[in-house]
Specification:
single chain, six-stranded mixed β-sheet, 6 helices, 20% strand
Length: 203
């Protein structure tokens, strides 16, 4: 009996690892095509003049994700003109969390007046490729002659509650470094937020 339990737990661990295994810093990112809230498909290749991308996995339901939405708006306003637009992707399965459906994405984008794409990943294929574990979870990607390369993965900053006097703006620091031709001093941090709502097996 103990052997069966051990095998079962091992399978759960392996399954969880498979769900969250994804890109690491230095990896080249495959392009994707996902539906935006305006009904159009969006891919990285659409941004001909981009120098890179701030790809963030976020959602409508996680309190952490909601708390950071204004900061995402600010990041896009600051860095999109410099060639690093925000591209937001909702990774959650709507069957598990109905409030993260495409229609709810449209509603949230309208309420917050998002100036960046808010994409839906219904089959979670892109989510599995990137490998976020939380919402929000950021991947700063730099366009290079060898492809789109991940240069930073993790949190937006270390100020989840919005009251940290020693606030460290990880994403801003990473993009500022890349814009100056340097590598980010900090390339990975721990994302703080809600777990990804994965599609149920067999669904």
């Amino acid at each position: 009996m103990k052997t069966l339990i051990t095998i079962f737990l091992s399978c759960l661990v392996l399954f969880a690892s498979a769900q969250t295994a994804g890109y690491k810093v230095g990896d080249a990112v495959s392009d994707f095509s996902l539906k935006n809230v305006d009904g159009n498909k969006v891919s990285l290749a659409d941004y001909k003049d981009a120098k890179g991308y701030i790809v963030v996995f976020t959602c409508n339901t996680c309190p952490y994700a909601i708390a950071y939405q204004d900061r995402l708006i600010a990041l896009n306003a600051k860095y999109a003109p410099l060639g690093y637009p925000v591209i937001a992707i909702n990774p959650n399965d709507a069957g598990v969390q109905p409030a993260d459906s495409y229609e709810k994405n449209q509603q949230r984008a309208k309420e917050k007046n998002f100036k960046f794409p808010y994409l839906t990943d219904p089959d979670q294929v892109v989510t599995r490729q990137f490998g976020p574990s939380r919402t929000p979870h950021v991947f700063v990607v730099e366009k290079s002659p060898t492809g789109n390369v991940v240069q930073y993965i993790g949190a937006i900053d270390n100020d989840t509650e919005g009251n940290n006097p020693e606030k460290l703006k990880y994403v801003e620091a990473a993009v500022d470094a890349l814009s100056s031709g340097r590598k980010p001093a900090v390339t990975t941090t721990k994302a703080i937020g809600c777990t990804i709502k994965w599609k149920k097996q067999g669904a």
